[in-house]
From TrEMBL:
Listed SUPFAM superfamilies: Cysteine proteinases (SSF54001)
InterPro entries (alphabetical): Papain-like_cys_pep_sf, Peptidase_C19_UCH, USP_CS
Natural source organism: Podargus strigoides
Gene that specifies this protein: Cyld_0
Domain (Peptidase C19 ubiquitin carboxyl-terminal hydrolase) ranges: 24-204
Organism superkingdom: Eukaryota
Taxonomic classification: Eukaryota, Metazoa, Chordata, Craniata, Vertebrata
One GO BP: protein deubiquitination
Keyword Hydrolase included in the entry's annotation: yes
Keywords: Cytoplasm, Hydrolase, Microtubule
Locations listed in the record: Cytoplasm, Cytoskeleton, Spindle
Protein name in the entry: CYLD hydrolase
Amino acid sequence: QAPDSFPPLRNEAAVQVLRGRMKGIQGHCNSCYMDAALFSLFSCTSVLDSMLFKPFPLCDRNVQSILRDEIVNPLRKTGFVQARSVMHLREQLTDKGQCSSFTTAEKDPEEFLNLIMQQILGIEPLLKLQSGGRKEQDCYCYQIFMDKQEDLVVPDVQQLVEHSFLSSNLKLVEIPSCFIIQMPRFGKEYKMFSKIIPSLELDITDLLLDSPRECCVCGDVATLECS
């Protein structure tokens, strides 16, 4: 355990601490979905550090301390988290949630995020989406759904998000404080893309609802949008 607080790893420090053998979060008993999610959310960014410290209205302080002291701080301090620490968290999620298989079965990352953010920590939804003028929908993360695109062989995240929003007729109602995106995946037998290039910055200008944008013909403020 690392009870002291450690900032997220950046630049050269991230390379030195996280690269090499016995680095990252140790997998055990179908924990890969949770290991990858926790690593992505906390290793190199502080945008969700409120989950570790803030006493939310519904916050379970035991789960919060396990997450902070047994997983996030050791990851940032030494670059390694033992499988038993993640199992400790999974046991708590099994006790608090309605599902008894968090310690044994592989889950969808969205199911894990919804449970820990909404039911255990009581965090407000991070995203507000609207589809085709219908009622707003609140959620904690966005999973990319799209049909196979022949022209996208090795896409980047920017392309995938734009294609997914366009095909689903979705818009962001407001700029999110944190935009968690789940990549498309299709199990062991078939994967839509063998590789996806991370976009280090994400331009959401065209994804925002009623956002003023430039006309691509005359340069003035646009009044119409063609999909």
